[in-house]
Amino acid sequence: MNPSAHSLAARRLRLCAGMLILAAAALVGPRAHSTDAAAEIRTVDQDVQALKKELVTLNRDLFRLEEELLYPASTQVAVFLSVNLGTFFALDSVQLTLDGKEVTNYLYTEREVEALHRGGVQKLFLGNLKAGEHELVAVFTGKGPHDRDYRRGTTVKFDKAVGAKYVELRITDREASLQPEFTVRQWE
Fold it and tell me: N or C: which end of the chain has fewer CB within 10 A?
């Protein structure tokens, strides 16, 4: 993580702590008159709302910093799944193996499959890989044509260079043969 990111996070934490102290002091401070008390309550409420807004922003920034720290762009690999039509294949599960090690084994609910059919894209895997040649194997299990059990795999060998690597697994219908087709697309 770079020094400016650390200083940004530290400043935000100090700001949040200061706002909490001010809000607490305003809540326990002496009350003079009922009109002054109502004005103080409005001010405290505004301060609390501003504090909530700042905490949401801080949480978002900290999440981004954590992502950068855990999955730096130079070693990041992400694998996504999408479904186009899907009338010849009803997805039940996906198993991903990367360089001979199982990294994901996902079992789908009916709602998740419906979301994929409506155009959703699922992030199956996010991890780190060193530069070089790698092999990704995806095994799809579900119901194929004529309601038969169907298990099909696809393999892709790819060269990971410095920088993020994105791989899309796509399930499509092959109209000519009335069969599902499993393809892999690498994004640059």
Answer: C
